[in-house]
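Suppose a classmate hands you a notebook page containing two proteins, each written out with its sequence and a corresponding row of structure tokens. How would you begin to make sense of it? This section walks through that situation. The first entry is reproduced here exactly as it would appear on such a page.
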Amino acid sequence: MKSMKLPAPPCAEGNAQNTLEAPGRRKFLYRLGWGALVAGIAGQVFAAVRALIPNVLYEPPRTFKIGLPESFADGVTYLEDHRLFIGRDRLGLYAISAVCTHLGCTVKMMNLNQPELVKIGGKPTEILQEFHCPCHGSKYYGDGTNYAGPAPRPLDWFRLEVSPDDGQIIVDSSDTVHHDFRLKA
């Protein structure tokens, strides 16, 4: 008898084809699983390292003491550390920011040779000094009102109060006040 080779059934060929594709799919799922595991561990390590860095903005305090009221003579005193002008007139003490409202440069105070009478808000006001911004040429009257240059608004005035514990003046630079504000001290 002659040996006969029987043809493989059609489903057997399909199984052979499936077994050839199975390692590719298995390999893909294996790599996908490891990739997900590595990504998850990397995310946890990043979060743990990021937690060690504080979310703190290191800025100077917005409320600070500047000294005793007696230490400020009549006229205007510049406090460089705080970029602030402290003024004393017959009505009391006041604080004007030295930060230009255009781009944040520090304005310089210019004493006038003789007082000028200007209208500010419709009222005639005697001006003894002006503030000039050296960066872009903004100019402000002695009360901080802008009158020339690109500055969009007047200089800020800050609230002053006397500390109850030691009698020093406290400036609150987060609380702007009207240009008529004075601390009677």
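The notebook's second entry, a different protein, reads as follows.
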Amino acid sequence: MTPEEVGQRFVALLAPVEATATVSGGQAHSRATVDVPPDGWRAALLAARDDTELACDYFDWLSAVDELADGFDVVAHLWSTRHRHGVLLRARIPRATPTVESVVDVYPGAAWHERETHEMFGIDFAGHADLRPLLLPPEFEGHPLRKEFVLASRVAKPWPGAKEPGESEAGGGRRPIRPPGVPAPGEWGTTPTPAGAGGVGEGPRGGVPARPARERPARPAPGARPARTPRAAGGPAATEPADDGGTT
């Protein structure tokens, strides 16, 4: 089945529930995307599994998207190993009451996906008996993948550029990025001082004594070099005393 046919099949199976079918992606990566109301979430996944034409027997993943004032999109990707087609199912739930029915009894593999989504977004899955923390320590407060969650690193240290679109008033280019744990020049340790600076360092711990400048002899002007004494062919240099036959 083509992605369009998969979407149309869902709309027919879920009637009279209002479902909207579209196609996301392109070419070989195109997928049927079906939006269903929250109360039709479990019925949509049941239809995907039990319908012989869809036969989505493989549960791939489940997660969510924070749409701010519009609520959350709960998203699941299913695949048919028999027919080689997939589908994205989405349900928009309100931000004030982020709850949707669990589908662990439909696809047991959704158990830890629902736990992770509950932990990261604060979405409740009604009927899930074990929504314990999966990735974060029990004492952790908040839901890190919600867009209003404040990153601690941005509070402790100024961000070098724009945090989010429209969030930073200062423009400018990006600063060079150093590997983690590597201090910036002048932030740690002693800083070598250029010669002639009197030993005053640039770093917070002071500098090191400057090395004295090494004097080099001046080069003679062109034409002022002393003439070299030519050597006689096969004999001693003209500057050496001549041999007097071995008598002294």
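A careful reader of the second entry would note: Residues 188-210 have pLDDT under 50 and may be disordered.
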